[in-house]
Amino acid sequence: MKPAIPLLQVKDLAKFYGNRVGCEQVSFNLYPGEVLCVAGESGSGKSTLLNTLAFHQRPDAGSIRYDLREEGVTDLATLPDARLRELWRTDWGFVRQNPADGLRMRVSAGANIGERLMAVGDRHYGDIRGVAKDWLQRVEIDETRLDDAPSSFSGGMRQRLQIARNLVTEPRLVFMDEPTAGLDVSVQARFLDLLRRLVAELRIAVILVTHDLAVARLLAHRLIVMRHGRIVETGLTDQLLDDPQHPYTQLLVSSVLNA
Amino acid sequence: MHEPTLLSVRHLGKHFTLHTQGGTTMPVLDEISFEVARGECLVLDGPSGAGKSTLLRCLYGNYLASSGEIQVREAGGLMRIDVAQATPQQIIELRRTTISYVSQFLRVIPRVSAIDIVAEPLQALGRDAGAARDKAAVLLARLNLPERLWHLPPATFSGGEQQRVNVARGFIAEKPIMLLDEPTASLDAANRAVVVAMIREACLRGAAVVGIFHDAEVRDAVATRRLPLSPIVAEQLAA
Ligand SMILES: Nc1ncnc2c1ncn2[C@@H]1O[C@H](COP(=O)(O)OP(=O)(O)O)[C@@H](O)[C@H]1O
Ligand SMILES: [Mg+2]
């Protein structure tokens, strides 16, 4: 077993809203290619944690260290804003619950995918079009829709386009906030299957927030259960779901069918 | 652990604390110790509720051991890993390389065909997709799963059909340690015989098998050794 360097190292992270706790005392390591789900009820601090991890908001305490492609392990608090923006556009992705927050709804699907490619310096028009077409196909959207804006797409297609937009730069870490919550059950399976395949194929590390334990069961290697802004239990996904130790996790697991 | 010993369990204990039921503690396994060597098939005996499935799940890292050790020799290496103490990453790696588990019921993955479900453990070891599918087809044919089902997701299959997919998936990668929880429970006599033959072949190639079998005939056909388990009763607790 080859000991890998963690891609992300989180230590004693906290975020407060005034005197309200968003999240606190959060520590974990994430390894390359690992899919980690953060589960918990709404209001438990999942999205706060995700946005803080992605440095969209500054933590009030604790540290986040990331293994940058060039510099190696770096405390994100020391990273200049320009480098942080570059990280967001290239080596990281962020998939939103509502596709309208993660896509540009009025520009073409091709441009939505191409935008991040340009950020990594791929300026050749034909190449970008070609790559965008290829990615539409990979997320099962007909390539004839390349020049259509996502405002004309169904919910499932929009969410798949968001995946293409984020994965096109082959990021090593992608954050996802309830990506299936807005989808009809009938299109969820397709989305999840696609996500599962792409993430495994590209060996992308993912931190995915969900309240749906079945989603966690399907996608995650490891699971974190949160309550009141804190981690109550963490472990191997099937172990945590089949043999939960903490009273709150037992309650959560026993209150859903077929998790 | 001696060289041929692949699995060594010492003083294993497992209890469940049911917080949703007033914090009741339910002891299931107490002071279980045994070893399994290459080529052995250890059959777990005992009535329903004795903790047979719980034991297998502990060995697979699916249930957390409450006490004791579960030493496993990693495939191809000299490393021993204690499943009871291992990190999630180590358990995932052990499952990829060393331990396979055939559960009683198949957990289906939406949209994934039977043949791909079977091929997956081999692909995870780096075998290319074509070769893995070819071997999956051989196994499914041997288990008499009708060919028209191979490319369908097993969600709509009968219990017996799903179980054969599960068995094929558990055997395809020829792992050194194989855990089998009633793999023949919903099979007819002909397919039961196929599974018995497959278990024997696994032992011949040097696998260590730990199994639970409802059917006495299957037990007798595969067991090289038995481990009796009995439910922990109240008097034992009081003692
Ligand atoms: N995840 C679990 N949570 C709580 N109790 C469990 C769990 N799994 C098994 N048990 C209990 O452990 C005992 C042994 O069950 P099991 O291992 O399935 O026995 P067997 O396979 O011998 O029939 C039973 O009382 C069962 O209810
Ligand atoms: Mg059982």
How would you describe the overall organization of this protein?
The complex is a heterodimer of chains A (259) and B (239). Chain A is an alpha/beta fold and 259 residues long. Chain A has two domains: 176 residues, Rossmann fold; 68 residues. Helices cover 38% and strands 25% of the residues of chain A. In chain A, strands 6-7-8-3-9-10 form a six-stranded mixed β-sheet, sandwiched between helices. Chain A has a four-stranded antiparallel β-sheet with strand order 2-1-4-5, with helices on one face. The mean pLDDT of chain A is 93. Chain B is globular. Chain B has a domain of 73 residues. Chain B starts with a strand and ends with a helix. At the A-B interface, helix 7, helix 9 and helix 10 of A face strand 1 and helix 2 of B. The complex binds adenosine-5'-diphosphate and magnesium ion.
Topology:
The complex is a heterodimer of chains A (259) and B (239).
Chain A: E1 8-17, E2 20-30, E3 35-39, H1 46-53, E4 61-68, E5 72-75, H2 81-89, E6 92-95, H3 99-102, H4 109-119, H5 125-138, H6 155-167, E7 173-177, H7 185-202, E8 205-210, H8 213-219, E9 222-227, E10 230-236, H9 237-242, H10 247-254
Parallel strand pairs in A: 3-8, 3-9, 6-7, 7-8
Antiparallel strand pairs in A: 1-2, 1-4, 4-5, 9-10
Helix pairs in contact in A: 4-5, 4-6, 6-7
Chain B: E1 5-18, E2 24-37, E3 41-45, H1 52-60, E4 67-73, E5 80-82, H2 88-97, E6 99-102, H3 114-123, H4 129-142, H5 159-171, E7 177-181, H6 189-204, E8 208-212, H7 216-222, E9 225-228, H8 234-238
Parallel strand pairs in B: 3-8, 3-9, 6-7, 7-8
Antiparallel strand pairs in B: 1-2, 1-4, 4-5
Helix pairs in contact in B: 3-4, 3-5
Fraction of residues in β-strands of chain A: 25-35%
Instruction: State the strand order across the main sheet of chain A.
Output: 6-7-8-3-9-10
How many strands, which pairing sense, and closed or not: the largest β-sheet of chain A? 6 strands, mixed
Secondary-structure element series of chain A? EEEHEEHEHHHHEHEHEEHH
